[in-house]
Design a protein that fits this description.
1 helix
Length: 145
């Protein structure tokens, strides 16, 4: 059964939805800081990532691989859902130049401190070529905003 609705009623509903805070996705400014130690098949990495923004975060990260004495920097983008931070991007600078452009992901849970960091697929020649490495560990995950 169809009912008619006046144009005034529709206009009032649109106005209410336009100004109701719960009906609109707010672009809330926030900052995210992740720092921890993660381990994987190739060793241990000291990891740091920082990002800021509203609904979409942008930032940078750095990983220092203890066994290779190798540092890699990343450019990251991501989001926060509940207490979970997900940042992904690519390696922007590395001791081993063949890693530049390699995909990287940092997923961290602020409620538990758990961190999962992935790197790959690796474009460098050698035994790790083509592999995606996962590093798991604990740290400090702070979300403000």
């Amino acid at each position: 059964m169809l009912r008619s609705i006046s144009i005034g009623a529709v206009a009032a509903l649109v106005l209410v939805l336009a100004i109701a805070p719960s009906a609109v996705s707010a672009d809330v400014p926030r900052t995210v800081n992740v720092a921890g130690v993660v381990s994987g098949p190739s060793g241990t990495v000291d990891l740091q990532a920082r990002a800021a923004g509203g609904d979409g975060l942008e930032g940078t990260g750095v990983g220092f691989h203890r066994e290779f004495s190798s540092r890699a920097s990343f450019v990251l983008q991501g989001s926060v859902t509940g207490s979970v931070v997900t940042l992904s991007g690519t390696v922007s600078k590395a001791r081993f130049g063949c890693l530049v452009g390699t995909p990287v992901t940092v997923r961290a849970d602020g409620s538990t401190g758990s961190i999962v960091h992935s790197l790959g697929p690796i474009g460098c020649p050698g035994p790790l070529a083509g592999q995606t490495l996962a590093f798991v560990g604990q740290g400090t995950v702070v979300v403000n905003g």
